[in-house]
Design goal:
It is a single chain. It contains 1 helix and 5 strands, in the order E-E-E-E-H-E. It has about 80 residues and is an alpha+beta fold. Strands 4-3-2-1-5 form a 5-stranded antiparallel β-sheet, with helices on one face.
């Protein structure tokens, strides 16, 4: 699953992005990667390991909802939701 979000753009600030990506790892678990920052920059990255898909999906949904409350808009979703 992959979700890409952007902040509302106005003339006074640079647009920001938030990218969440969930993928299986080689040991049967799941890796959630969060990347965020200003458009055009390399951004910051956080990786979190989960043993099961249910916990990983809950975290991706909670992260998405928290960023929407901060003013981000979903631009792209790939995979299950």
């Amino acid at each position: 699953m992959r979700i890409y979000m952007q902040s509302n753009t106005d003339t006074h600030s640079q647009p920001r992005f938030y990218h969440i990506h969930l993928s299986p790892d080689l040991l049967g678990g799941w890796l959630l990667t969060k990347e965020w920052g200003s458009q055009g920059s390399s951004g910051r990255i956080q990786k979190i390991h989960f043993d099961n898909i249910e916990e990983a999906e809950l975290e991706i949904e909670n992260t998405r909802d928290a960023q929407i409350k901060r003013g981000y808009q979903v631009v792209f979703i790939q995979g299950q939701n």
